[in-house]
Amino acid sequence: IHVASQTPMKITSMVLQTQVVASAFKSSSLTAYKRSYQKNGQKDIHEQVFGSSSLSEIIDVPKRVLYPGCHRHITASLVFPSVDYVDCDQKVSNVYQDEVVQKWILSEIQEKSSMVAPKWTFTCSSYTSMAQNAKFEDESYDLLVSLSAGIVSEPCSRYLQPGSHFLVNDSHADASAAFVAKDESKKSNLFSLIAVWKDGLWNTADIEDYFKTTKGEYISVEQAREAAEIGSKSKRSFRLMKDAPFYLFRKEVAAGKDSRGTEGESKGRSRKRRRVE
User: Fold this and answer.
1) How far is residue 238's CA from residue 265's CA, in Å, rounded to a whole number?
2) N or C: which end of the chain has fewer CB within 10 A?
3) What is the 3-state secondary structure (H, E, C) of 41-94?
4) CB of 95 within 8 A of CB of 105?
5) Are the beta carbons of 220 and 226 closer than 8 angstroms?
């Protein structure tokens, strides 16, 4: 296990290079992680969301993942080979530095024969300040993750390569913000919705009614802003026809293309509903 740190950037890098036999792993950091994400001894649902075979039918395995507002959510490293975590709370950095957590992750992925030992970094920063850090280069990631961390899409979409993907929930209205976001020309959509998480799989069919209000109209910029400011769905001035716990967007490649609805296939494959194996 290699641990490298830099200050004052507050970046900690981890590369797992050893084989560890699964055993009982105990540390305060691992306990805090499990208390938040593995309640009642159940696996974190996000491990299935990140690692579902239905996702691999839609996109290639991301080589570089950016996870702003990550808190202690190191689950992404159980699935993806390289993750850069960012959070403004220095206290959560312990989980990314803890050797017990590292060994636990390695023991977990031993069962996944196709997965290499993961590497990750943790940067203590707000995601709005990341642009000041040379570590984060524009268009250098192929998956951006945003889970209940505010409107990550606005400051962080710049780090996604064109044609790459954004996995997000709408708890803080970030999926809504992505749906209405425009590119630099202000004329074309920055993202297109390509899949939603439903019934334990990523579904690419029948997604055209998501982000439509009960009046049959797509949400506006003003409504997405209202959703972010008010939060509670019951207090909003509008209702949605459908919603989902997670959404997958693609960052558009070419300007001038309106890609709402079901357009665009990331891997050039036909879109079919597939149940998780």
Assistant:
1) 31
2) C
3) HCCCHHHHHHHCHHHHCCCCCCCCEEEECCCCCHHHHHCCCEEEEEECCHHHHH
4) no
5) no
Of the candidates 249, 161, 201, 157, which has an alpha carbon nearest to the alpha carbon of residue 56? 201
Long-range CB contacts for residues 217-225, cutoff 8 Å, separation at least 24: 218/179, 218/260, 219/176, 219/179, 219/180, 220/180, 221/180, 223/176, 224/173, 224/176, 224/177, 224/179, 224/180
Residue type, 207: I
Cα dist from 102 to 6, 63, 105, 109, 120, whole Å? 19, 20, 5, 11, 10
Answer yes or no: are the C-beta atoms of 62 and 165 closer than 8 Å: yes
Taking the alpha carbons at both ends of the chain, their separation in whole angstroms is 32
Which residues, 6 or more positions from 31, have their beta carbon under 8 angstroms from its beta carbon? none
The rounded Cα 146 to chain-centroid distance in angstroms is 5
Burial class from Cβ neighbours inside 10 Å (0-12, 13-18, 19+) for residue 62 reads buried
CA angle 210, 214, 215 (to 5 degrees): 115
Could you tell me the two tokens for 91?
Answer: 């206290």
